[in-house]
Amino acid sequence: MNLFALEPFPLPTEDLILKKLEGLAAAFNHHDVDAVLSFFAENCSMELPQGPEPCGRRFEGKVAVRSGVASRFAGLPDVHYSNVSHRVIGQLGISRWTVSGTTSGGERIVANGCDFYSFDAEARVTKKDSYWKIVQNQTLEMNPE
Questions:
Q1: Domains of the chain and any CATH numbers
Q2: Cα–Cα distance, 126 to 77 (Å, whole number)
Q3: Tens of pLDDT, residues 108-127
Q4: Is 97 exposed, middle or buried (0-12, 13-18, 19+ CB in 10 A)?
């Protein structure tokens, strides 16, 4: 047995990743935290555009990511992603969208943005890294924990 002759690690196809991105976008638009989390690996992370760190606000692990997703829905109770398009390059998934909603403080927001996703061998999200345009005089808020 040659330990150095390992079989190639099977990776998900671009078509499978595209289907996952479509399902994930639908779950976000249904405000279904459980459905959103069903697309994530246990050892996942999520980085939001706003926060105290250069990466924004980072959530590590599925429990923390659940909290981050729930805070998104609490901070923008009517959040909706429209004009959604997806691209897959190898194991990188990219989603472009327009986010709209009303903050818990009553402010209406609309901004274009995108997410960069990394996937594991089972096509589960290991990292969601979000970006959006900064529109003057509006704040995309998170519900404070």
A1: 14-132 (3.10.450.50)
A2: 26
A3: 999 999 999 999 999 999 99
A4: buried
